[in-house]
Design brief:
Layout lengths: L5 E5 L2 E4 L6 E6 L2 E6 L8 E6 L6 H7 L14 E3 L2 E3 L1 E6 H6 L3 H13 L1
Antiparallel strand pairs: 1-5, 2-3, 3-4, 5-8, 6-7
């Protein structure tokens, strides 16, 4: 996919998913993302990673999203319980700032530049 990006955004809405006890749907800037129930809340600032984005190995590990990426570390659309998840959202922006490493700083500065 062309124009894949990673940027900081706000969760606009969280919806329940029928017959799903452990997941819910987050709506972020027109994207929908399946998330672990209770992990995020409305208005949380999060890192939105769109379909096709390639995430460096060390960042994928530190953000806790490695298991959701394909072998080539790219984000792909998935379907669970009949709902499409078009992107990933990672740790809250506040959490990222609190645990920032030099590598994260570079990522944050690049993300903030896109705002």
């Amino acid at each position: 996919m062309k124009n894949s990006v990673c940027y900081i955004s706000k969760i606009r809405e969280i919806k329940s998913i029928e017959n799903a006890d452990n997941i819910e749907l987050a709506l972020v800037e027109g994207w929908q993302c399946i998330i672990k129930k209770g992990e995020f809340k409305k208005n949380d600032n999060v890192i939105l990673i769109t379909e096709g984005a390639i995430i460096p190995e060390d960042l994928a590990q530190s953000f806790g999203i490695k298991k959701y990426l394909h072998k080539d570390n790219t984000v792909h659309v998935i379907k669970l319980k009949g709902i499409y998840s078009e992107c990933l959202i990672s740790v809250s922006y506040t959490h990222l700032r609190a645990h920032e490493t030099p590598e994260h700083l570079v990522c944050r500065l690049l993300l903030e530049k896109k705002k």
